[in-house]
Amino acid sequence: MxxxxxxxxxxxxxxxxxxxxxxxxxTDTGELLYRGRNAVMRxxxxxxxxxxxxxxxxxxxxxxxxxxxxxxxxxxxPCAMCMANALWAGLDRVVYGxxxxxxxxxCNQIHIPASxxxxxxxxxxxxxxxxxxxxxxxxxxxxxxxxxxxxxxxRRTTTNGTQD
Length: 164
Known about the structure:
The chain has 164 residues and is of the alpha/beta class.
């Protein structure tokens, strides 16, 4: 996870920093298959989340839609869309750092825990959370990221000036 945080933090050197990174590794050996970062703003694509992009590209690399035998690591708890995608891909396990609540301090989120999505599915996938949470959360609080959040804020301002 710490390597994934370092990889994700490299985006802070670009014009479009992101706190969301994902990696897919062989469950047995730990060998990296693919890793990626969120590209929503870069691609103007609301589905271009790190987890979704990484699953897509890893599946293409393998030449098949199944990622059985692999584990997804993410710097943040996968949203409902990303967790559903992990299930459809047949991943063995999902491991995340920061939580949906952590991310929601900075950007809009769907408040359904990844473990709940997995529990309500008939596709087996272990979910392990809050691995190196504090380290992963530093991606959200870095001054460069805070500046980016302010620029691409998805939060609406209410009539009394608060955000919702």
